[in-house]
Specification:
Elements lengths: L6 E5 L9 H10 L6 E5 L5 H8 L5 E4 L16 H6 L4 E4 L2 H7 L3 H13 L3 E6 L3 H5 L3 H12 L10 E4 L13 H19 L8 E3 L5 H8 L6 E4 L6 H8 L3
Parallel strand pairs: 1-2, 1-8, 2-3, 3-4, 4-5, 5-6, 6-7
Length: 247
C-alpha cells in the first residue's frame, strides 16, 4: 500500500504583521531536511515577503483561499494565479471558517480546487462537521458528502490533501478521541478511493482542530492521519516545530 508523504501545514488565518516574519525564519531554520513536508499559509499581505524569508529552506508557502476565476471585477479577492505569482505552491480551500462566514458551498469549493489546479497549486481541501451534526450521528455522512461534493474528478492523479477539521474542535481546546479521528479518516480514505481509485492513496489526510505539541504525537500516530493543519499553534516557531517533530 502506498504511504502518503506527511504534511504539516500552518494556517496563520488573519494574524501576522511584518514582525511575525521572524517566526517564519525560525521555522525555516528549524525544519528538518528529511521528514514531513512543512508549509506555512500566512495572510495574503505577507505571502511575498514570507517567500523571501523561507527561500532556501524546505518549508513550502501557501495561501489561505483563492477565487475560482483567474481575474476580473472581484474586489478584495485573490486569484490562484496571483498566489502562485507571489511564490505560493499550495492553497487551503473550503476551510470551515470560509464555509461558515462566507457561505461557501461544496460546489464553490470544487471550483476553487479547479482554480488551484489551473494555477499549478496543490490544494488542501477542508471538510468537517459541527457539534450538532456529530451529536445527531450525522458526522460520517456529512463529511463524506463534503468530500464527494468538494473534490472534482480532475484531482485524479494530482497532488492534493484533505484536511478533516471537526468544527467544534477548532480553537476550543477540544479534540475528538483517537478512535473518532481514525473512524473519520478511514471513511475519508474509503471515499477518496471511490472517487479516484488507487491514486487516492498518495493523498495525505490531515487532522485539524486544536493541534498542539502536547497532543500532536498521539494524533499523528492514529491510523490514516497523514499530517496536520495547524491553526494557533503555528504562529510561534517553537510550538509549530514541536508538532513537526512529533511525526
Amino acid at each position: 500500500m502506498t504511504v502518503p508523504t506527511p504534511l504539516i501545514a500552518g494556517n496563520w488565518k488573519m494574524n501576522g504583521l511584518s514582525a511575525a516574519l521572524g517566526e517564519a525564519r525560525a521555522v525555516a531554520a528549524g525544519a528538518p531536511a528529511k521528514g514531513p513536508r512543512v508549509a506555512i499559509c500566512p495572510p495574503a499581505t505577507l505571502i511575498h515577503r514570507m517567500g523571501e524569508a523561507l527561500a532556501g529552506s524546505p518549508v513550502k508557502l501557501g495561501g489561505q483561499d483563492c477565487h475560482p476565476e483567474p481575474s476580473g471585477a472581484h474586489t478584495g479577492d485573490i486569484a490562484a494565479e496571483m498566489l502562485a505569482d507571489a511564490g505560493a505552491s499550495l492553497v487551503i480551500v473550503g476551510h470551515s471558517e470560509r464555509r461558515a462566514d462566507h457561505g461557501e458551498t461544496d460546489d464553490l469549493v470544487a471550483r476553487k480546487v479547479m482554480a488551484a489546479l489551473r494555477a499549478g497549486l496543490e490544494p488542501i481541501v477542508c471538510v468537517g462537521e459541527t457539534l450538532e451534526q456529530r451529536q445527531a450521528g450525522e458526522a460520517l455522512s456529512i463529511v463524506t458528502g463534503q468530500v464527494r461534493g468538494s473534490l472534482p474528478t480532475a484531482l485524479g492523479g494530482k497532488a492534493f490533501s484533505v484536511a478533516y477539521e471537526p468544527i467544534w474542535a477548532i480553537g476550543t481546546g477540544l479534540t475528538p478521541t483517537t478512535a473518532e479521528i481514525e473512524e473519520m479518516h478511514r471513511a475519508i480514505r474509503a471515499t477518496l478511493r471511490e472517487l479516484f481509485g488507487a491514486a487516492a492513496d498518495t493523498a495525505p489526510i490531515l487532522y485539524g482542530g486544536s493541534v498542539k505539541a502536547a497532543n500532536a504525537g498521539e494524533i499523528l500516530r492514529a491510523a490514516e492521519v497523514g499530517g496536520a493543519l495547524v491553526g494557533g499553534a503555528s504562529l510561534k516557531a517553537e510550538d509549530f516545530l514541536g508538532i513537526v517533530r512529533a511525526i
